[in-house]
Amino acid sequence: MTIFDQIDKIDKKQLSPLYLIYGEDEDILSEAKQKILEKIQFSSDNLSQSYIDLSESNSKFALEELESLPFFDDQRVVIYENFWDISTAKKSVFTEQELNRFEGFVDNPVDTTVLIIIVHGKLDNKRRVVKKLKQKSILFEANSLKESELSKHLLDLSGQMGMDISATAMKRLLEKSSFSFGLAKKNLDLLKLYKPRGEISVADLDLVLPKTLQDNIFDLTEMLLKGRIKEARSLINDLVIQGEDVIKLLSILTGNFRLYYQVKLLQKKGNSQAQITEQLKIHPYRIKLAMQTVSKLSLGFLSQTIYDLINLDYQIKSGHGDKNYLFDVEVIKIALSRVK
User: Fold this and answer.
1) Domains (ranges, CATH) in the chain?
2) How many CB atoms lie within 10 A of CB 71?
3) What is the pLDDT of residue 337?
């Protein structure tokens, strides 16, 4: 069950005293926050609802809000955001005395108050107050979604937006969004603007959605491995014209070859795709593509290429020549080594 499925189960008429939303995936956390505000029908005009950004608000006022009675309503809803005291951030909002007062509220919540806490990042599980919160609160952890969960959520979301997108097109959307929830949502908005009505095809996706830098470097890597020198140099030139720095391109290219080397090495040791994915902590789709690519490559070629790229990085940063020229020479060298 995803965090969004959990939020969907909240009954506004039967709210629990304590809710704790936390996690390191900012895009998921932001969406979860929005959904829970919609679920409780939050309005800044409602005198029985308070949103408090603890990084900006007075701590005494924040505590008083917990103890205030609701206006013309059965319950008062208080939302704390940026409650650094319970996170691993080296910051604090409350004094020790105020934190003890807050802990007293956690021990004995007021029947007429619902507290929703939103924490950006990890909880400090060593703190007593955090242990109590985790025992007494309904917890929502903002973790990155699995591919199947991400696909389902975005298909549901696209349906709510009035969009008609097939499972095949959704898979392509996820690939072009690097399986990032935030980027996939932005790309859905782009597609909605492009095609408000009718079915969205894979062709529509390829036409509308811009390639990420990682996509372009992946294409560059494939061109080099197939000896397509002219296309590779043309792509690099386009990226430089767009404002990309050669050192950044070199860094990502080196990362690609490092991944290929790791995958090839683990493959030779008899590891399956699932095992390699688990060991490298990289999305299964990237591992699948890498396994297809390295099938015709030797460990010797990959290790030499990595060595050459690292050496090139040193030469550029040491001022041994024009970076664009040096990168161009290395690109030609890699492509020619694959033609032989």
Assistant:
1) 3-141 (3.40.50.300), 147-208 (1.10.8.60), 213-339 (1.20.272.10)
2) 10
3) 85
pLDDT at position 339:
55
User: How far is residue 167's CA from residue 32's CA, in Å, rounded to a whole number?
Assistant: 24
**Separation in Å, CA 245 to CA 89, 185, 311, 321:** 33, 28, 18, 15
**Cβ contact 216:224 at 8 Å:** no
Residue 70 · residue 41 · CB < 8 Å: no
pTM of the model: 0.76
pLDDT tens digits, residue range 103-136?
A: 999 999 888 899 999 999 999 999 999 999 999 9
Alpha carbon distances (Å) from 265 to 69, 251, 272, 295, 297: 64, 21, 12, 11, 11
Q: Is 192 left (phi over 0), alpha (psi -120 to 50) or beta?
A: alpha
Give the 3-state secondary structure percentages of the chain, helix then strand then coil, rounded to 5: 60, 10, 30
Bridge-based pairing state of the strands 76-81 and 49-53: parallel
Q: Kindly give the parts of the chain with pLDDT less than 70.
A: 339-340
How far is 25 from 280, CA to CA, in rounded Å? Answer: 19
d(C-alpha 29, C-alpha 20), whole Å: 11
State the residue for tokens 């290395």. 330
From CA 29, how far away is CA 43, in angstroms rounded?
A: 20
Cβ-count burial 305-328 (b if 16+ within 10 Å, e if not): bbebbeebbeebeeeeeebeebbb
